[in-house]
Amino acid sequence: MKLVVVESPAKAKTINKYLGDDYIVLASYGHIRDLPSKNGSVDPENNFKMEWEVDNFSKKYLKEITDAAKISSKIILATDPDREGEAIAWHVKEYLNEKKLIKGKHVERVVFNEITKKAVIHGIENPRQIEPLLVDAYMARRALDYLVGFNISPILWTKLPGSKSAGRVQSVALKLITEREHEIELFDPEEFWTLSVQFNDNAKNSILASITQLNDKKIEKFSFKNKAEIGKAIEEVKSKKFNINDISSKVVNRNPSGPFTTSTLQQVSSGRLGFGASRTMQIAQKLYQGIEIDGETIGLITYMRTDGTNLSTDAIDTFRKYIKNEFGDEYVPDNAASYSGKKAKNAQEAHEAIRPTDIMRAPDTVKKYLSPDQHKLYNLIWNRALSSQMKPAQFDRNTITITSDDNGTVCKASGSVIKFDGFLKVMKDTKKDGDEDILPETNKGPVNIEALLDEQHFTQPPPRYSEASLVKKLEELGIGRPSTYASIISVISTRGYAEAINKRFHPTDRGKLISAFLEKLFSKYVDYNFTASLENQLDDITTGKEGWIKVLELFWKDFNQNVSDVKEKRTREVLDLLNDSLGSLIFERDKDGNINRQCKLCDNGSLSLKNSFRGGAFIGCSNYPDCKFTRPLSKAKAAAQSQLADPKFIGKHENGKDLYLKNGRFGPYLQYEMIEEIKEEVVVETKKKKKTKKKKVEKEDNNLRNVSIPKGITLESVNLDRAKFLCSLPKSLGINPENQKDIILNSGRFGPYLKCENKSARIENVDEIFSIGLNRAITLIAEAKPGRMSASIIKDLGEHPEDKKPVRVMRGQYGPYIKYKSLNATIPEEKDPLELNMEEALILIEKRKEYDKKKKTKKKRKKKNEKNNLYSDNITIINNSTLFCRKNGLF
User: Is 61 considered catalytic here?
Assistant: First the structure.
């Protein structure tokens, strides 16, 4: 008997079918042990010795593995082909070695890039040993993350109450988000104008051209800064005669993109499918581990955590044959395309890029076996991989040059027409640029000015980061690992440091405060170059250029001193440092440009940064409690708050009553008076119900309705039409042809959503609430899962392996938790709830069960002791023989 250990039960089930009865395949359910969440788990004084702990859940599955190891002649460690997989294999081997189960047995490490029979058999036939350098790299990263988290987080808890924790890479990602927000807040828009000319040729063809040169001067972005300058330019153009003096055409190639890596998959999936990084990786994991197709579990894609950009020779050959058979020889390039050299800065081992395991399984042929989301992602991966081996697309790009008689003024019109679709035959283009403009056929000669089109513009601030652009930026900087970007992003959101509004990250006030704290007091460790350099050192451990203990020693020496220095600072001193650091970002400037911190309420107080455990950061007066002035940390929020210090009249509601925009405790809202209704016919059966009804009537007597403004809608955009629309919710968009039921549009606590019978779907882009139509609503409802949409459900992990009951990750008042039947298990702060899998959830459930069991035992013991104490308190022994009961005074 041969024992094969993998990390996932789904993977174990599939591989067991491929290998047959001579093998027993068991799952470790992820990592079997980890550093305990306590001080001292990593000892810097003893060569960074680590104390590993096996949790109770893993003990159950480790017993299965150890029992099987006893009767096995060979132990095969077949965990994932990356650092984490290597680490799990090492942990299993070390554990079995401690149990003295390895002696005299052959232990092998095998990897396979895809879960197919061919790949699994090939992996088993080509074993290797555990790579010690990969294990060293894992140890260094794990120790670093522990040392940073367990040293900075306690300082945050004491100096900035309400803060949760600070991670090594998450803190740098948060810095990117807050710095971008600061850029936006400080941005000063500049006015500029553009000028286009509409010409007519002799055949009455219309040509729209942009002016590129005026009176021998090249036109730049800010050539026309105001209305007066553009007006002068228009008059000068009007006074000239123009001719077409050149018509040029050239063929331009557009090359296909390479097959997906982890980060490019996350970016494109976000842009094309609207999937977040975590959602993308969850779906990809299922496609990799296997889908049930005609009674057989088959992995549809290769390993999805990869930085490699190349495809295997066998895959390229099958792709080229498929392209030739399906589309023709003209779509097959002479030589196979190579994408080497495009690996990320901080790439891990150069695995193969993400591709379908069998190109013959076209997306439409497997659609019936996949969920809608799985099909979308598989279709994207299949198309991208196949198109990467197709010929470039070709465009005829035409340019018409129109000049004035004196040759001093030049206008140009450009357009493109597709000549050969090439890879676009498979990977449809989503670019919306000028390439689709088609120019009319014309000849050289005079043209007449039909119209002059001037347009005013203002420079725009840089856009806030989306998940895709944040992943791209982190990768550009060489920070973090592409396979962990989903986790980094999720942690920032779930800890309340940033919130996603219209799919863009907005740092919360607490997030800004923590980022400023780290920038001021731990500046070296949130520096982009330092973090990227540290990543390079960690990668050098993998190649053997650096020793893992040496890297940790260099880091720990300065970091430990930094931590000691910050611990000495008082909380007030820290807040004063942040006042200076944030400066004009949180305080107004006076006429001379100096920071003005004078209180607006009491005049003699000084405004300062303050922090509360529940509310987070805010600006308050130094004269508190005599002066109770407060305002939000963000100047923009403060301005919005002051803007609505008095109710703003919007207009008349449809019932003829006044409609106001107000600011309340929970944000801005609309308020109008409702038309009175008859409320006399109230049937009351009991006194209790009567009391309840009376309260209800009293509330209705107020006769005012409040309608919250959904988060993400700016106050400036709330005009009368939008206000009336929001007040009209909920409203029916029409009938769903699937079930002949109304599709209802409404806005709730967590934003706009659709509801139809037992299905609900969120509207991700809040502005879409004003424009969504029936067709779009039908699509969203069709894609939604049946059941009540709960904003508290973060992730549905599936069925418990023992009783098939649902296991879910929930959002609670005190943080995310696991829900299984009536049991709630807290998720540790260092765990990312969106990245949590079933294996980890089962561990937390077992821990909770054990905790409840201990608690129950303690309660029983306490009850027993109380009973004994009661007996001893009420009974006194007199002269060793007589009993006296104090309770009733009897002998």
Answer: no
Structure tokens at 601: 């309420």
Does 690 have pLDDT greater than 50?
no
Strand extents, DSSP E, 381-496? 393-404, 410-420, 445-458
44 within 8 A of 560, measured Cβ to Cβ? yes
Q: What is the pLDDT of residue 7?
A: 87
How many whole angstroms separate alpha carbon 532 and alpha carbon 434? 38
Amino acid at 62: L
In whole angstroms, give the CA distance from residue 387 to residue 819: 43
Picking from 37-46, 87-96, 128-137, which range would have the lowest pLDDT averaged per residue?
37-46
The pLDDT-based confidence of 834 (bands split at 50, 70, 90) is: low
Tell me, rounded to whole angstroms, the distance of Cα 756 from its chain centroid.
28
Share of the chain above pLDDT 70, in %: 86
Q: Which residue has the higher pLDDT, 591 or 866?
A: 591
The helix/strand/coil state of 187 is coil
| Residues 789 and 773 sit within 8 Å (Cβ to Cβ) | no
Nearest CA among 43, 267, 33, 303 for reference residue 147:
43
The secondary element (H helix, E strand) that includes residue 570 is none
Query: Of the candidates 544, 501, 560, which has an alpha carbon nearest to the alpha carbon of residue 712?
Result: 501
| Cβ-defined contacts of 760-767 (< 8 Å, 24+) | 760/784, 760/788, 760/789, 761/789, 762/789, 764/274, 764/502, 764/503, 765/502, 765/503, 766/501, 766/502, 766/710, 766/711, 766/712, 766/713, 767/502, 767/712, 767/713
- Report residue 710's pLDDT band, with 50, 70 and 90 as the boundaries: confident
pLDDT beyond 70 at 477 = yes
User: Which of 61, 303, 378, 820 is flagged as catalytic?
Assistant: 303
Q: What pTM was computed for the model?
A: 0.73
The one-character DSSP state at 525 is G
Secondary element (H or E) of residue 606:
none
Structure tokens at 583: 């400066």
Please give the mean pLDDT across all residues of the chain: 83
Residues 81, 82, 85, 89, Cα dihedral to 10°: 80
The whole-angstrom separation of Cα 218 and Cα 211 is 9
